[in-house]
Amino acid sequence: WWQVDKVSPIKLFDENKILAGFHLRHLLYQQGCHEYVRGVVSKVFKLWADKKINVTTDSEWAFEDVAEAMQKMHDRKNIGKITLLPDKAPKPQQKAVKEKEKSITSGESTDTDPKDEQTPPPCVQTPFQKNT
């Protein structure tokens, strides 16, 4: 999407452009602008409710798929917001399913190797251990 390594302040000045932002927590808690922020947020929400502005949503994800959503954002493949929804069902794990199908079709055993399993340390009691 928009990838820039460096921003030249001289070029911005020559092109009459500005790069700006603010730190909301600083504005709220260190400068005491609670009422100002509340008023601005109310105006923005009213513009959104009146459909004068809209939010561009790229995709919606289940909480369980947060790693994939973060990877998409990290790879800069989104345009708009990536939203996590608590009631959305997670995507089926196709990678694990494909690997299992591949091993079955190739005649490999699907059983796990006992030496690959880790035994818990003595201080951790599993449900299958008896108290001694």
Protein model, in words:
The protein has about 130 residues and is mostly helical. The chain is built from 5 helices and 2 strands; from the N terminus they run H-H-H-E-H-E-H. It has helices at about 10-15, 25-30, 35-50, 65-75, 95-105; strands at about 55-60, 80-85. A two-stranded parallel sheet has the order 1-2. Strand 1, helix 4 (about 65-75) and strand 2 (about 80-85) form a beta-alpha-beta unit. GO terms for molecular function: oxidoreductase activity. It comes from Trichonephila inaurata madagascariensis. Keywords: Oxidoreductase. This is Synaptic vesicle membrane protein VAT-1 homolog-like.
What is this entry, summarized?
With 132 residues, this protein is mainly α. It has helices spanning 9-14, 24-30, 34-49, 66-74, 94-105; strands at residues 57-62, 81-85.
Topology:
Layout: H1 9-14, H2 24-30, H3 34-49, E1 57-62, H4 66-74, E2 81-85, H5 94-105
Helical residues, percent: 25-40%
Give Rg in angstroms. Answer: 26 Å
Question: Which sheet architecture does the biggest sheet show?
Answer: 2 strands, parallel
User: Counting H and I runs of at least 4 residues, what is the number of helices?
Assistant: 5
**N-to-C series of helices and strands:** HHHEHEH
Q: How many strand elements?
A: 2
Biggest sheet, spatial arrangement of strands: 1-2
Beta-strand share of residues: 5-15%
Uncertain spans, ≥5 residues at pLDDT below 50?
Answer: 120-132
Q: How far apart lie the N and C ends?
A: 61 Å
Describe the global form: extended
Structural class: mainly alpha
Average pLDDT number: 78
Organism: Trichonephila inaurata madagascariensis
Keywords: Oxidoreductase
Region (Disordered): 79-132
Protein name: Synaptic vesicle membrane protein VAT-1 homolog-like
